[in-house]
Specification:
It is an enzyme of class 2 (transferase). The protein is α/β, with parallel strands linked by helices and 368 residues long. The chain contains twelve helices and twelve strands. The chain folds into two domains: 56 residues, DNA polymerase, domain 1 (Orthogonal Bundle); 280 residues, Aldolase class I (TIM Barrel, Alpha-Beta Barrel). Helix 5 runs parallel beside helix 6 and helix 7 runs parallel beside helix 9.
Length: 368
């Protein structure tokens, strides 16, 4: 049941549901599904081992399962969910963006970014987005549909397999951070995103065994869903895409602000910080002559000081034909200085991927 006041989105009329997949199911549900196919329930553990621990979704590699059972189990519990349309790489191959085609032809994106001390993957939770933020390529495209839990999880499984197999320069590596900052508003696909987080963080072989502390969930500020998220008992980080400290401007940059105002969004974020013990990340895209004025930086600093918070300033990655562009370097420096004068920690995000249509939604838009 939706939380009162929560935004919900219906699938387009006539849209087909993604096929059921192992990653959609809890361990208990997997055992039931395997038994319903006439197989011993322990086969569910074997399938989970192959998918979540070995990244082996080819039945030919399942040598511990009778050959006569493999095809049926694969068809019913490990169907092909998505295929790679193409990869685009830059930064000597250490940033790789993947365009995926889902079972129904829908396009989504994920990005893998390798740094000297960590590997981060940015994933999508929806195909398109219904938040309608005018400076965002995904928002301009509108919402196609929610991704299933398994479609979300498989982006990470594929990324981890590519790291293990040395497909990304730098040798084999392990994924350390996941950010739900790709296409879509994660908290508008609440149930499936929570399911994905459980699959990502359940111990192997029930899940991928990743740390909740390495997962960041971004939101434009769906206030009831933030409070609901706090009740999940997770240790994920919450990132709030604020982009303006004043309601007058934020109403235009982030249209959902007409429903939940800046103060309501921040109050919900502070509640999440208190319950989870994690500091809040404030995402702020710096847009030239729109939201990068010194007085706005001062106002933002006054609102955030004395809270468990970190500001992540994002030089806007402009989309083709857009009037929105990145701030001038001097304005960016002044914005940082104003926040620091209030004792608010702030960094400017490393802008990777501009030469490969790095802004979320650009690769899918180009393919269309």
């Amino acid at each position: 049941m939706p939380v009162p006041g929560e935004l919900t989105f219906a699938a387009p009329r006539g849209a087909k549901k993604p096929p059921r997949h192992l990653a959609d199911l809890s361990p208990a549900e997997r055992r039931e599904a395997v038994a319903a196919l006439g197989e011993k329930p322990f086969r569910a553990k074997q399938l989970s081992q192959h998918y979540f621990a070995r990244y082996a979704d080819d039945p030919a590699a399942w040598t511990d399962i009778p050959a006569g059972a493999r095809g049926k189990l694969a068809e019913e519990l490990l169907p092909e969910l998505m295929t790679v349309v193409r990869h685009a790489a830059c930064d000597d191959g250490e940033t790789r963006k993947t365009l995926w085609k889902l079972f129904d032809g829908t396009l989504v994106e994920s990005v893998l970014m390798r740094y000297p001390d960590r590997v981060t993957m940015c994933i999508s939770s929806q195909a398109g987005c219904g938040m309608n933020c005018p400076f965002c390529a995904t928002g301009q495209a509108g919402l196609d549909r929610n991704l299933s839990t398994a479609e979300i999880v498989h982006q990470i499984v594929a990324g981890m397999k590519s790291l293990r197999d040395g497909e990304v320069p730098g040798g084999p590596a392990r994924l350390s951070n996941i950010v739900f900052m790709g296409m879509g508003e994660p908290l508008a696909n609440y149930k499936r995103v929570i399911g994905a987080i459980r699959r990502l963080t359940d111990p192997e072989p029930d899940g991928l065994g990743l740390s909740q502390r390495g997962i960041t969930v971004s939101t434009v500020g769906l206030v009831p869903a933030i409070y609901r998220f706090a009740d999940e008992g997770l240790k994920c980080r919450l990132a709030v895409s604020l982009h303006a400290p004043d309601d007058e401007l934020r109403d235009t940059l982030v249209p959902v602000n007409t429903r939940w105002k800046v103060r309501e969004v921040l109050d919900a974020a502070w509640h999440y910080a208190e319950v989870s013990g994690r500091r809040i990340s404030i995402e702020y895209a710096l847009i030239r002559d729109i939201n990068d004025q010194a007085w706005r930086a001062d106002r933002l600093g006054r609102m955030l000081k004395n809270h468990r918070v970190h500001v992540n300033l994002i030089p806007l990655n402009p989309t083709p034909g857009s009037k929105w562009t990145a701030s001038r370097p001097e304005d960016e420096r002044a914005f940082v200085a104003a926040l620091e004068s209030h004792g608010v920690p702030v960094t400017v995000r490393d802008t990777r991927g501009q030469e490969i249509d790095g802004a979320c939604g650009q690769l899918a838009a180009a393919e269309r």
